[in-house]
Amino acid sequence: MIRVLHTFPLRSRLIIVYLFILGAGGLITSFIGSIIVNRNIMNQAKIKVKHDLKIASVVYNTELEIIKKAIYLVASGNTIRQALLQNNKPLLRFRLEQIAQDVDMDFVTVTDPQGQVLFRLRQPERVGDIVTDISPVRAALSGEITASTEIFSSDMLAKENKLLPKQALIHLIKTKKAKPPDKKLETSGMVLIAACPIYSSANQLIGVLYGGRLLNNDFKIVDHIWEIAFKGEKFHSQEIGTVTIFLNSLRISTNVKTKDGKPAIGTSVSEEVYNAVVKRGEQWSYRAFVVNDWYISEYKPIFNYDGEIIGILYVGLLEKAYISIRNKVIYTFFAIATFGFVVIIVISYLLTRSITKPLSEMVEVTNSIAAGNLEQEIKVESKDEIGQLAYSFNRMVVSLRKMRKEQEEWGNTLEQKVKERTEELASMQHTLMQSQRLASIGKLAAGIAHEINNPLGGILVLSSLVLEDLPPDNPHRENLQEVIKQTMRCRDIVKGLLQFSRLEEGKTEYVNVNQVLNNTLSLIEKQALFHNVRLTKNFQEDIPSILGDNSQLQQVFMNIILNAVQAMDEVGILTLTTYHEKKNDMVVIDISDTGCGIPEELIDHIFDPFFTTKEVGEGTGLGLAIAYGIISKHNGRMTVKSKVNEGTTFTIKIPVADKVSQEK
Predict the structure, then answer these.
(1) Helix, strand, or coil here: 645?
(2) Least confident of 37-46, 525-534, 597-606
(3) Strand, helix or coil at 647?
(4) What is the SS3 assignment for 339?
(5) Which segments of 568-645 does DSSP mark as H helices, in order?
(6) In angstroms, what is the C-alpha Rg of the chain?
(7) Element (H or E) spanning 22, and its range?
(8) Most confident of 224-238, 255-269, 546-560
(9) pLDDT confidence of 2, banded at 50, 70, 90?
(10) Which of 39, 203, 226, 270 is the most exposed place for a label (fewest CB within 10 A)?
(11) Where are the alpha helices (DSSP H) in 76-88?
(12) Using CA of residue 102, residue 309, residue 111, residue 128, what is the dihedral sign?
């Protein structure tokens, strides 16, 4: 067998061996590359759908919080108190109609201190029944302000609004892989409900106000989530993203479409998902078959006031859209690999034609070169293939001599170059990471600011109406005027948030940071949470001005100060320091507290969007990220130093006005 092989030309033997090695290596590399591509693309899809579920939860909870704040605003006002005490039904109807229209509630009801209905906005004739079986109402009778998701029977819906039983009615549809329906018709409804006690001026309970919105066949929430997370994303004219609200296992609000293009209301979740989410209370993350297609899905249980699982919040991404992307990448990868393989075959065939030099001379010269002697060259005695190889080999030796000389020169400065390059890469990485964080805020900022504008508008309108009704000598006018003033300031902050999300510049003017800090403190230092906080101000009197937006800077300082007070559990020392750093021509603001401090492993994440150490529902994790973005727009820097159980110091540096002007 060996003798037969040696009868082949050397060129043929080299090509055969090379093709075998290249082919095997190419197949292995392509297989591993396909696995990596598939894993990375599908992992990115899973990360996105987890992020989208967070968006859905924020939107859902925000809708519930809007209803809760609206109910609280009305229940704590003088109008409803006077209407109840004077039994003034027209005034009561007028006030409740206002709030129902402002917040888009399907029903608003008032009870007496025993839970007996006194007045229903949508069913004025249905009064006298006891509603203590509604958990939020029962809690409100005990003095709590509550909001939750609950299930109302058809009779309960009819009592509140005669139109709701028809809206709640859903015909169950059997679909592939779905949990088999146990009935043909669903008459109950899932509602967002809030309840608040009503007290007299003597702080005596005189009733309860509750109201809510029916989610069955109501697409406002799912459409809002879709607008934020998926708008414009399609695959072959099919929407990539889907959002659904389930009552137990039944779709009651969704943008999932059936084959005829209608919303898949009445279809059910798969048996596997139902068992995991509803029965075991788990958050389910995997691929799931949704009506007609497979989706990369995230399911989260919805709880009522009593902690029972009554439904599911779902978001999903069309799996075949990502499979299509994966296949295109893999096919492109294989096409490029195949083309490269063919090119290499052609090149190797052409190169091997010149390999005819006697091996003995080649071994001798290469051994000499391996020993470090680069001065030896092969004598060129012919112009045929052997001569060409010898000439090329001599050129290689010349190149090696040149390369060795260059390497020796580079070796003298390599360590310094590596250090400079490392620092450059670290700086680039930090800049890229921060840009990604700010981009994440920008994606959600517009949607969130839009949602905040609605309750702010309601607060401003209602506060103005109440102010008009108060006599000039009423002691509450000053407080109410302050509420209106601060509400308008909040509106300016929301406007600034929208400008930030669109990367727009704010109002630029000469600003004295001492004045901004004093204005900020005047707004918040009289609050109850500052009663046990000792405030120390170390302000440089002749501190130079900066160019910036007064409102945005006030927002940054207020956010950091409130965080500091909360970190001290409202007891401790808060120190504010300002000075001019002449070396870098910067205005420096230090805000220090004696609070619990931040663990070292969390320091690098406090400016990340959605990162928060507060309890669920107490913070969105956007405050410090937005503050960081505002300071960055002012050409400044924000850093933090902290020790656990000792305290935290935030340092803000902003160029003085003259320096900023020169740079621009």
Answers:
(1) coil
(2) 37-46
(3) strand
(4) helix
(5) 600-603, 623-633
(6) 36
(7) helix 10-75
(8) 546-560
(9) very low
(10) 203
(11) 78-85
(12) positive
Structure tokens at 489: 């300031």
Q: CA geometry: angle at 148 spanning 142 and 154, to 5°?
A: 100
Q: 168: number of CA atoms within 13 Å, CB side?
A: 24
Q: Mind spelling out the 3-state secondary structure of 241-264?
A: EEEEEEECCEEEEECCECCCCCEC
**Token pair in block for residue 118:** 């006194």
Q: For the whole model, what pTM was predicted?
A: 0.50
The token pair that represents 611 in the structure block: 């990162």
At 618 the pLDDT is 55
State both tokens at 598. 């931040």
Q: Kindly give the interhelix angle for 550-567 and 623-633, rounded to the nearest 10 degrees.
A: 140
CA 563, 611, 312, 452 torsion: positive or negative?
positive
Residue 560 tokens read as: 């950091």
Q: Are strands 546-548 and 509-511 parallel, antiparallel or unpaired?
A: antiparallel
Instruction: Measure the CA–CA gap between 635 and 633, rounded to whole angstroms.
Output: 5
Greatest mean pLDDT among 217-231, 327-341, 480-494: 217-231
Residue whose structure tokens are 């000039």: 472
Tokens describing residue 618:
């107490």
Q: Summarize the confidence of residues 568-593 as an average pLDDT.
A: 92
Tens-digit pLDDT profile for residues 379-437: 666 666 666 666 777 777 777 777 777 777 766 676 676 676 776 566 456 545 655 65
pLDDT tens-digit series, residues 102-119: 999 999 999 999 999 999
Contacting residues for 502 by C-beta, under 8 A, at least 6 apart: 442, 446
Q: Round to whole Å and give the CA distance between 53 and 226.
A: 11
* Contact yes or no for 270/178 (Cβ under 8 A): yes
For residue 363, what pLDDT band results from cuts at 50, 70 and 90? Answer: low
Q: Which two tokens stand for residue 370?
A: 């391996």
Amino acid identity of residue 68, one-letter, is K
Of 120, 92, 118, give the one whose Cα is nearest residue 106: 120
User: In this structure, what token pair is assigned to residue 661?
Assistant: 């002007």
| Sheet (strand 284-290) strand order | 250-254, 241-247, 309-318, 293-303, 284-290
Alpha-carbon distances of 476 from 15, 223, 482, rounded to whole Å = 95, 41, 10
pLDDT, one tens digit per residue, over 483-517 is 888 887 777 666 655 655 654 556 788 999 999 99
Can you list the domains of the chain with their CATH numbers?
1-353 (3.30.450.220), 505-663 (3.30.565.10)
List the end-to-end C-alpha distance of the chain, in Å, as a whole number. 80
